[in-house]
Structures are given as C-alpha cells and as structure tokens.
Amino acid sequence: MFNGQSILVTGGTGSLGKATVKLFLEQHIGIDKVRVFSRDELKHQQMKLEFEQYEDRLEYMIGDVRDYDRLEEAIDGMDIVVHAAAMKQVGSCESNPHECFKTNVIGTQNLIKAANHSSVSKVLFISSDKAVEPVSVYGNSKQAGEKLIISASTENIKFGAVRLGNLLGSSGSVVPLFTRLRSKGRIPITDFEITRFCGTIHEGAESIKYALENMIGGEVFIPKWNSFRIVDLAKLIAPNCELELIGLQNHEKVHEKLIGTKESENTFENSNYWIFPKNGLSIDQALDYYQALAVQSKVMIDSRHFILSIEELRLLINPITTAV
Questions:
Q1: 282 to each of 102, 172, 215, 277, how far by Cα in Å?
Q2: Do the Cβ atoms of 13 and 44 come closer than 8 Å?
C-alpha cells in the first residue's frame, strides 16, 4: 500500500519517529518520499548524517505543530501522516501544563485542520497507555488527542490511533535513566510494586505500520505488549545499587492500563492486537476488517498481567544497555 506514497512523520527526529522512517525506507523501496518534520535543528543535522544512504527519498522540514501555517506547508503533497510529535516527559508536562496542551492538543487540532485542507488519505496519531483513565497532564493530553483524531475520521480521510506502552531505550525512558544513575550507587524507585507495559522502539514502528495497513478510520490499535516490574529492571541494570523508595507521585499510577473499563465493552482482538473501533462496528465487520473477534472477558487489561520473567526482561534490554 505504500508504493508511490509520500509520508509525513511529525516528530520524525525522535526515537520512535526515526525508527518509523527507517522501517518505511528499508521495507518499502517503492515509497516516493518521507518528509521528516520537527522543531529540533540539531536532531535534524544528526539524522541527516545517520540516514545519508536514504537521502534521495528523504526531506527535512524544521517546524512546530503549534504553527498551523508551517504544518500546512509540511502536509502539502503528502498521502499519509504519522503524528508522533508531542511533549512526552510526564514530569515536564506536570510542570508546564499550558505548554503540554499547546503541543499535544492544539498541535493535534492543527494537524487535523491541515489534513482536511490537503490530499492526505490517512492520519495516524501516536498515543500512550497513559491516555487510559488518565491521572497526569500528559495522559489527559493524549486522551484528548485520541478523541480529537477519532472524531475527525470521514469517508475521505481515515483518522486513527495506535496506543503504545513504554518504549524501552527511547530518549528519556527508564532504561537509559537507570544506566546513567548506576554510577551513583543509588536508584530511586517511587513504589516497589510499580509495573509498566513495554516494547522496543522497533516494535513501536511495526505497530505503526500495521495500523496504517489495517485502519478503516475511527479506531485505536493497541499492540499486545508484555509488562515488567520496575524493581526487576533496576536490579538487572544496577545489581550493586541501593534501591531507594521515594514515594509515588501524584501523576503516577502503580499499574497502567492498555484498555479502559468502559472501552473493554466494545473491544476486539486478534493474535497481536486489541482494537477499539469506531461506534457501531459489528462483530462480522470486525472479523472482516481486522480478522478480530470480540474480547470474551470484559476485564481491565492492566500491567499486572503479562509480566516478563527476569530472564525475558534481560534478553529484551541487553541490546539497549549495551548501546547506551
């Protein structure tokens, strides 16, 4: 489906954005071009050097999703949009809620408006498990973004979302954080019971590709990722460090959810994904569109389930910790 297509990736110089760009260029030689849009000029320069072999199919644009006019220029001539631009650091969003709102909500509104004035056929919003029954500014902004995107879907343009857990190894994530802190001999832990969903950056990019290939518009795709205990991760990365309990923050949950209680009443699943579709989709349509069946057990799918063993977690993080 990507042959001859032009793809815009907002936030394209971030960890997930770069992995998505690389996946498209490596796996789909028929892609016309990929346009990378972000506001960080240094990351643009670094990416140009890293992706030099793809320069004939890559374009770079510096800009901010808050700036509607620049976003309209970026989306011109594109067929598909992957909207990965966001403020993502939970603590920074708590300290700067207005800035988070401007980027994650107003920026998404700008994208929808620009898409509706373009020839784009598909727009995919990158969401987070923190959008499910949110307690943080970041989670609330992602929930708002999901709702804006889903409500924007029409017969002419398919809007959808993919909801991801933690991306292990991404900039600002817990693996590089613990790796840096281990030299200090102490790892702060907010709660010894904390669990989180996780996947690799490459798995995140694969989920984006899957959603684009299968979306009919108005749905949220949720990859069936495993989860891990933060304590297990800390012990693997820094086995000789003291684990210091510092207390749960107001914007944190002990366990995250991939699907909300209300959402589970209208969720379908196949072997690798849960799918929360637009209203009114029948069981037969879900089977036809996604090869998915209705979830039989209407339970909250939270991070206390699917926990990786110590050895499974070790195998997952070894390539990441080696690279840090």
A1: 36, 40, 15, 10
A2: yes
- What helix, strand, coil percent values describe the chain, rounded to 5? 45, 25, 35
The DSSP letter of residue 307 is: B
Domain extent, residue 121, equals: 6-323
Residues 6+ away with beta carbon under 8 Å from 188:
181, 244, 246
pLDDT at 289: 86
SS3 183: helix
Query: Considering the domain boundaries, does residue 65 fall inside one?
Result: yes
Per the domain annotation, does 63 fall within a domain?
A: yes
Rounded to an integer, what distance in angstroms lies between the CA atom of residue 124 and that of residue 192? 35
Q: Would you say 165 and 256 are in contact if contact means Cβ atoms under 8 Å apart?
A: yes
Asked whether the CA dihedral 290, 83, 119, 111 is positive or negative, the reply is positive
1 found inside a domain? no
Containing H/E element for 181?
Answer: helix 174-181
CATH number of the CATH domain containing 201: 3.40.50.720
Q: Which of 125, 122, 109 is nearest to 11 (CA)?
A: 125
Let me know if residue 163 belongs to a domain: yes
How far is 171 from 228, CA to CA, in rounded Å? Answer: 19
Q: Are 321 and 314 in contact (CB under 8 A)?
A: no
What is the layout of strands, in order, in the sheet containing 195-200? 166-168, 195-200, 226-229
Whether the per-residue pLDDT at 296 is higher than 80: the answer is no
The 10s digit of each residue's pLDDT in 241-281 is 999 999 998 899 999 999 988 888 888 999 999 999 987 78
Mean pLDDT of 50-64: 97
User: Catalytic residue positions?
Assistant: 130
Confidence band of 305 (pLDDT split at 50, 70, 90): confident
Sign of CA dihedral 176, 94, 123, 211: positive
Query: For the whole prediction, is pTM greater than 0.90?
Result: yes
Neighbours of 119 (CB within 10 A): 13
Q: Based on the structure, what is the number of domains in the chain? A: 1
Q: Give CA 322 to chain center in angstroms.
A: 23
